[in-house]
Fold this protein.
Amino acid sequence: MIRRIDALSGSNALRALSPMWKSSFAAVMFILSYTLHPALQGIIAAWMVVWCTVYARIPLRAYGLLAGTALLFYILGMPALLLELGHPAAGAAAGVYQLPALPLYITAEGLQRAGYLLVRIAACMSCFLFIIFTIPFTELLQVLRRLRLPQIVLELMLIMYRFLFILSDTAHGMLLARRLRGGKRSFRDKLGETAAMAGTLFAGTMHRYYGLAQGLMTRGYTGEIMLPPYQPRPVPRKFTIRAYTGIALLLLAQWWIVSH
């Protein structure tokens, strides 16, 4: 998946836009996603999906796969949000649902709280996905450098990003070798094989990481990884108008909801 994301971020239809403008737009939308009414948060989530899948032409399958993977963490945390331990008191208010044969129940307040949280997570996550899918990682580092992020942090981010590819290549090679040797097929056996491969994977990855470090030294690494300079780019007027109009409409809608 990491290679798929890297390829899409470098070939999407919004690739030519200024990365600083796209980062600023995503930052403004993230702040609005956190502060506006839940109904407007849902609109923001849908609007950012349009930016990614229509304007940037990111395949809906790839977008849905990454968004769905992130939402799995919300689903895993849902029982803690919804379920109350014990039995509801007699004469409790309406909106209490007792689970059959279990000392657990769900309240209407819990459902509402989980719904609000889901909408907010979807809106905030859509802003991050806009950055992930439309800005290549090297350009994102250039933006962070212009924002005065320390050089050591940028270098660590770059090395960790490179390390993900090394880890993915090593794991893929080991899995392929096991299959060619007639690896076991059942799900339970695959889990056992994965656990057994963990130690070997770490050793193989560190070996390749050592090769990467040697390659940097050979190319004249002096303790600082130089990033290419930031090149400002123009933003087409149609995208500027869409962005500013959408933000203005969201603020007007928030004002109308609060005043009524």
Q: What stands out?
A: Residues 66 and 137 are 17 Å apart (CA to CA). The chain is about 75% helix and 5% strand. The mean pLDDT is 82.
